[in-house]
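Students often ask why we bother encoding 3D structure as a string. The short answer is that it lets us treat folding as translation between two languages. Here is a chain of 378 residues written in the first language.
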Amino acid sequence: MTVADDGGLTDVQRTQVQVLNEPLPAAEAKGTTQPCTVPAKSASGGTNISPTSEAAMQPLHAVIELRLSMDTSDGVISFPTASVVPSKPESSKQAKKSRTSKKEYTNGGLSQAIRFTELLPKPNEGADAEWIEIINAGNKTVNLGNWMLADTAKQKSPYIIPDAVTLAPGQFYIFKRSDTKISLNDSEDSLFLYDYNDRLIDQITYAKAKKGHSYALITTSQQADGERFASANGAPPDRTKISWEWIETPTPGAPNPSYELLHATVDALTGGAEEHALDVTLAGGEDAILFFDDSVIDPEIAELGIGPGTFLEAIAQQNIDSTYELERIQSVTPPAPPEVKTKSNKMIWIVSGLLLLTLIINLVPVAKKLLQKRRENS
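And here it is in the second language, the structure alphabet:
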């Protein structure tokens, strides 16, 4: 016997019905064995399994129990009863594991140029305002479908990035806490970025978060000032430093601040009660103004410890008008003590020599008289 048109059956059902292709034992057959089909309705009015029946639509993990009443006299096989016994449902842990490990979207592209650039763990507005920023630092557009964002290295509950997220070269993207469900700790935490092949692309760890401050990737360039930073082999030195720093003014979706390492000699302390400034001469010879507030230097301390001639190594951000906003001072070298003006040593030696000569001239006659008197007495 054969079963025709079984394309809609599940594998389990197809396996169950394969018995229909086996020849019936002679003792059980009623008449001649011949091919038959499974009709939409049986002649006996029972429930038959067909590609569109309810039993055929059960998921693969269901077990189909069929009670067969076989009658081949009219070429029809009737299934008077068919019951579905579901398999044991998976536990909540199994279901969670399945959800977190399953890739939900179309795989995107592969790139090593996607990087974390800024994050806000402790916003002034509350935890719901947390966000994470990434950038495509490469020169090719990258789709992030099925990439993963996690705050644990084991990816227990990663956020799977939708395939609708595509980054052009130099483009930023902000992940909000309301979307990722990733909670950034105020004390210490780490973030990990994986591509759809589970390969680690970038990671960042921070210590105690500052309220209202973002943790940002900052570029600091060193000022070219002659031979101070010349390399040993004579090649131009690398004057760029990249580091993570807490900044007071977050810049979501925009470039982070870039700083300069300045070497300057103070000419004067200027400014008023609210705006303080240092007039300086940079190591390259240019004049500049460094503005600062009380959080960088206390004005009273500045008056006492930073006077004319003081050498500063400072981190500052350049303004549009070529002035600078002072971020912090790395080191302070006080000016050399003023040279004490004294009388010429030459004059002192001349006077001393004259006095000694006078003394010798006067002592010679006295010595002669004393010697002559001693001879007379003897």
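Translate back mentally: The two ends are 170 Å apart (CA to CA). Keep this in mind for the problem set.
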